[in-house]
Write a structure and sequence with these properties.
alpha+beta; eight-stranded antiparallel beta sheet; 10 helices; 16 strands; about 25% helix; elongated
């Protein structure tokens, strides 16, 4: 993970994040100054950012919004104070409303981003300066330490070419916290087709089967926010297992980019999870990222112990073989 430390100094009124990466300074600089790359990590998992304005010049502004799995938007803006390419830039960072107007009563901070070379690549040092101890404590209470750590730990994916980062590595499962697990899989195909494979029932039936020998008996998807879905499977002849299914509701839809749903095992009193699917395309391949939020660590561990990762890999391999190849 890139982040090596997040500390705060009540006397200096600062919070400092340090991240070390296996990439040269110039590459790290581009990741922090290109809005399309920033969108991939500026915001913790589940709260991706969208930059609508990015005027990278002294006196210029940047505006962004982070969208939660429930569709709530958290807006922010930067004012660029200083730029020394490729070693430093400084911004005035603030919370805003949807029109970019600063929100009264919310802290404003000055942030410096410093880029230095290391023996293994480069280091980012991000120092946030606050006007008062109350402002520093307010930001920390809002989860800034945990959120910034999770956000900047996504840098590795951004700094490498997508195929170099993920091709041939299959389905990968990362435990991010007691409640959050991230699944990633590179799919060799364009994003629009991968999206259709997840949202069109006739295509879903062809690949979302888990281990060989199972049949998808029900696939109903109402692809609108608030719409329901229902999946069911049954074992084929000679396959050991009992029929089962999942039901849930769509919370957020951003066509071809993001689909957030709840998931509940049909006919049980097991708690629901929130599944946040996002797709990113580069060079004809699509990185599929599924962020799963569990109610607690015990539920997380119970689900992972079922062989979920292996079952998902079998399905994704089938998606490439049966859907994309055709």
């Amino acid at each position: 993970m890139p982040v090596t430390a997040v500390t705060h100094d009540p006397e200096a009124l600062t919070m400092t994040l340090v991240a070390d990466v296996d990439a040269p300074v110039e590459r790290l600089w581009r990741a922090l100054t290109d809005p399309r790359q920033l969108e991939r990590f500026w915001g913790p998992p589940g709260y991706p950012a969208s930059f609508t304005v990015f005027e990278f010049a002294v006196g210029g502004t940047a505006r962004y919004a982070m969208t939660s799995p429930q569709g709530e938007r958290y807006n922010g803006a930067w004012e660029f104070v200083a730029i020394e390419e490729p070693t430093m830039f400084e911004v005035r960072d603030m919370f805003t409303d949807a029109d970019g107007v600063p929100v009264e009563g919310m802290p404003v901070q000055h942030m410096t981003f410093t880029f230095t070379s290391t023996e293994t690549g480069s280091r980012l040092t991000n120092v946030s300066h606050f006007d008062s101890i109350e402002a520093l404590e307010q930001v920390i209470a809002m989860g800034a330490v945990e959120g910034s750590t999770l956000a900047f730990n996504q840098l590795d994916t951004v700094l490498q070419e997508l195929r170099a980062y993920a091709e041939g590595k299959g389905t990968r499962t990362e435990i991010l916290s007691d409640q959050h697990v991230r699944i990633t899989r590179l799919i060799n195909g364009p994003r629009d087709v991968v999206w259709r494979a997840h949202t069109e029932p006739d295509l879903v039936r062809r690949w979302l089967l888990g281990p060989d020998g199972w049949t998808m008996t029900t696939c109903e998807i109402d692809l609108v926010e608030g719409g329901d879905y229902l999946y069911a499977w049954a074992p084929g002849a000679g396959v050991v297992g009992e029929p089962f299914g999942f039901d849930g509701q769509t919370q957020l839809v951003v066509p071809e980019r993001r689909w957030v749903t709840t998931e509940h095992m049909t006919g049980t009193d097991f708690p629901s999870t929130t599944n946040d699917l996002s797709l990113y395309e580069e060079d004809g391949a699509t990185l599929l990222t599924l962020l799963i939020e569990y109610p607690d660590a015990a539920t997380r561990d119970m689900v992972l112990a079922t062989g979920m990762t292996e079952g998902m890999e079998a399905s994704y391999a089938r998606l490439e073989r049966e859907v994309l190849a055709g």
